[in-house]
Task: structure prediction
Amino acid sequence: MDARLILVGLAPAAHGGNRTGRMFTGDRSGDFLFAGLWRAGFANQPDSHSVDDGLSLRDAYVTAAVRCAPPDNKPLPDERDRCRPYLAEELSLLRHGTVYLALGAFAYDALSKTLPVAGALPRPRPRFAHGLEVRLTGNLRTKRLLCSYHPSQRNVFTGLLTAAMFDSVLARAAELIAVESEMPSA
Result:
């Protein structure tokens, strides 16, 4: 609950998080995600196959915009909107969040409508792009929204998202968290 890095994905994969009970666990997207979190120091091991495999996240929390595995792993905006109150409640409980990382445009859209601070994104809202960094407004403390392409098999296998690209976003998240932790309390 003290995590400062909050990662938001799409939805639990039918053969991953939906099957195992933990987001990104037991699927190839999770293999890529947890390896990156491990390289960046946010996880104690580079993989996760089951809820009892010993994975421990450090200063990071992983959730999703949608709560159930959607048909064809493609949730509709209506499903996102119906799940929004659950995501909003979850984010409100994560009070130490400094950096929100949207994994894909769908998660970016969900976060832009759900972040705990009303009107947190500047208007007009920046378009989703890998590596996008948005300073959230209306905060006493500096909070940022970072974006990465989703670590789906399609994005990874086609080279749209590489380990180096993902590592760069996670390194920026770690840098922002370090800077924020050095600031005096408001």
Q: What stands out?
A: The mean pLDDT is 83. The first strand starts at residue 5 and ends at 9. Helices lie at 17-20, 28-39, 77-93, 105-114, 153-157, 163-182. The chain has one domain: 5-178.
